[in-house]
Structures are given as structure tokens and as C-alpha cells.
Task: inverse folding
DNA sequence: TGATAATTTGACCGGTTGGTAAAACATTAC
DNA sequence: GTAATGTTTTACCAACCGGTCAAATTATCA
């Protein structure tokens, strides 16, 4: 038989698993920097070190590769938020959420950029996920934050915009990396910038959410 | 004569000015959502309501359109930071900088996304601007912020990362608009979200930068 | 009005793109 | 070993891409 992988019920051979991984790795590289439409199959094949028809044997279309990547990334992307614990100490929960997101920006910048590209271009492939699972999870965690505020453990604030602020500030170091490095200059563009960012952001959010006399 | 606009020394006709504007308007639409490589001249021509050769009469290449847009946007993009006044009151300067950036995200989302796309894709067309004029301006303003901190007017913090945080949180509402609206749900996706965001961000940054006993 | 310059169009071109067909080659199962 | 299955390659195609050209049309102005 000559059916490509997607048509089979079960993953079979070792070679399949390896090649699919190799392809997705290459595809991540290219999609992350050029977006869906700006990416060509030839480019991916080139990075993966195989011929285009060979690549198309494993993923029948460009869409299929993109979808496989998006599914995987979206899931990982939400992990740090899932860990957000309602029972924990508010300040340290927020602090460690920031730290985890920042680590992801540092360790998986391509994944972050793939996601950013998708959203920037109007999320044509993941609108349902945004309005479904993603929204549900955020709703749930927003409720946790709201209850902390109500209990007087942190300052009153809109929990949704708090989450947006944590997302944007942390992902900025992956998505806008070129700009960050351009502005910081060569001498401050080492990995140390992530520690500086962590220090700053923890300070900002922790003291920004501290309860004080003037409240609200 | 039949020389396209770029070759002429002076802007001549009314029709030229109108058409160029029309084209850039259309190009902004398309570039902002598909990025440079993902955009086709046909698409732009279509949105602009003219034929491709006609469009190419005004801008000889896709690059030329993109460059014209980028130049214009980059300049506007920096305006709010330029207004940042060393002599003003620190807290209200930061507050109004946030407000201005948020207004830009609300009123010029396509411009923000064009810029974001360019950075995401590695800033191939504006690397020089990033390391030159942009860096210089940020360096200058960072020095102002540092002096405020030294004078005890705001909490000590890394001024570069403060600026990054303001950029990312505000632009988030333009660049990640689909996601923001998806998460907030239909009922909170009106223009009111910008006011909520402003309230939240002003609170976050102002009290996050306030001097307190345990200070930084 | 007519001459001149500015604008618009349709037909076209070479290169690239996403994807296919079929056969050659490699691997595995018996 | 050999038959069946899985993998890779070569050759290809139709559509699309950025861009050109020359002719047709329209605006400008003496």
C-alpha cells in the first residue's frame, strides 16, 4: 500500500515517527518566521533535508503540517495557566506564573512566534479553540483571581486584563526578540535579559497588585 | 512621458496623490494581516479596486509599497515616546504615555500589526532603524526614567524593561485583538474593553512603580 | 480644438508554488 | 529468498506570482 500516514488508523513504523518529527521541527522553523502564507513547502523540505514529494508523503498538505503544529503548541501554551492553583498563595502563584511564561518565551520562542503569527493573521485556523477551550480556561482562572481580590488578598483589578498583561509582557521577549535585542544593544543581548525581565516583571506585578491604604 | 511616480522629482498631479493614498491604504490592510511574503500584489490591487499593472504604475515593486508604509508607520509609532517629557511629573508622564499608546492600538490597529508582522519575521526591512533611531530614542528616555528613580520619584526599576512592558501590554490590544475578543466573549468585545484596559494598566504601572517602605 | 503628457488596460513572460503520478528503491514479515 | 508493504525519487502539471510591454484611453493645457 501507499497510503500516507494521515490515512492510517495507527502509527506504525519507527521511520514514520522519526520523519514526522523531523518535518514538524523544520516546519516550526519556517512557519514561525514567515507565517502560513509566507511559508513554502520547498522551504520546509529544504530545512528538513528531504525532497518535497517525500515530505508530502507524510503530510499531504501544507495545512496538515500547520494544523499538527498548532494543535501541539496550543496545548503546551496553556500548560502554565493550567498549573495556576486556586489554593496557593496569590502573590506566589502570580509570581511563578510569570516565571513559567518567561521561561517558555526563552526556551520555546519559535512556538510563541508561530502562535503570534496565527493570531496576528486573524486566527483563521484556531478561532474555535480561542472561543472554546481557551476561553473556558481563562474564565475559570479569572474567577480564581477575582475571588482573591474579593477576599482582600490582592488589589481589586480586572482579572482578564491582568492575564492579558502577563501574556503580553512575557511573550514579548519571544515575539519581539529582534526589537528587544536591537534596543538593548549587543552588550545586553545575552541570556541575562531574561533574568532582568523576570526581576522587573515580578516587581511590577507583585507591587502593582499589593493591597494599600488608598485601595482599588 | 510615462515614468512612474518614484522616478519623478516632484509630486505633480492630484490624481497621483489620491491613487497613492488609495494604494497604501489597501496595502496596509493586506500587509497587516498576511505579512510581507504572504501578501500578493493582486490582493492589494483588488482591495484598491484597480488592475495590477495600474497599481505598479504608482509603485514599481511590492517592496516599494511596503517600504513606504513602514517608513510612515515607524515614524508615527515613535511619536508617543517622543512626547515623553523629562520635566513633567513622572507618574502622570507614564500614565499618559500608556494612554497614548492604548489610543494608538485602538485607532490604528493595522499599523500596529504591520509593525508586529515585520518584527516577528525578523525585521528584515528595518533592522537599521531598530538599532539606530529607535534605540537612540529609547536610550534617551530610559535615561530620563533612570533619573526619576534615582531622585526617588518612582521605584527603582530597569527602564528598558519598563518601556518594553508598556509597549507590549498596550500593543497587545491591537496585535492580539482576535484573541482578546475571543477570550472576553461577545458581550465584552465592544470599545469598552479599551477603557477597562486603560484602567487596569494605569493601576498596574502606577502602583507598581510607587515608592514604598520595602522599596526595590 | 488639438497636441502632449498622464493614466489605464489586456496580453504576456519566466519563475515559483502546491500538489500528483508512477515507478524505483528499501524494509519487513514470512 | 521472496512477496508484500513502506519509502523515496524523478518527472511533471496547472495555477499563481511579481513584473513588463505596448497599445488604448483619458486628462491637461495652449
Result:
Amino acid at each position: 500500500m501507499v497510503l500516507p500516514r494521515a490515512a492510517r488508523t495507527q502509527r506504525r513504523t519507527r521511520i514514520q515517527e522519526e520523519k514526522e518529527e523531523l518535518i514538524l521541527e523544520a516546519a516550526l522553523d519556517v512557519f514561525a518566521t514567515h507565517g502560513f502564507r509566507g511559508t513554502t513547502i520547498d522551504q520546509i523540505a529544504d530545512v528538513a533535508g528531504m525532497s518535497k514529494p517525500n515530505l508530502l508523503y507524510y503530510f499531504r498538505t501544507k495545512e496538515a503540517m500547520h494544523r499538527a503544529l498548532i494543535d501541539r503548541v496550543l496545548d503546551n501554551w496553556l500548560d502554565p495557566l493550567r498549573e495556576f492553583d486556586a489554593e496557593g498563595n496569590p502573590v506566589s502563584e502570580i509570581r511563578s506564573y510569570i516565571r513559567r511564561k518567561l521561561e517558555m518565551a526563552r526556551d520555546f520562542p519559535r512556538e510563541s512566534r508561530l502562535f503570534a503569527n496565527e493570531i496576528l493573521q486573524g486566527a483563521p485556523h484556531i478561532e474555535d479553540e480561542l472561543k472554546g477551550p481557551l476561553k473556558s480556561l481563562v474564565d475559570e482562572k479569572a474567577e480564581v483571581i477575582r475571588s482573591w481580590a474579593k477576599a482582600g488578598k490582592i488589589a481589586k483589578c480586572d482579572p482578564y486584563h491582568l492575564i492579558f498583561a502577563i501574556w503580553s509582557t512575557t511573550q514579548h521577549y519571544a515575539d519581539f526578540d529582534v526589537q528587544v535585542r536591537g534596543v538593548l544593544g549587543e552588550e545586553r543581548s545575552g541570556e541575562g535579559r531574561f533574568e532582568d525581565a523576570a526581576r522587573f516583571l515580578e516587581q511590577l506585578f507583585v507591587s502593582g497588585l499589593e493591597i494599600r491604604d488608598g485601595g482599588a
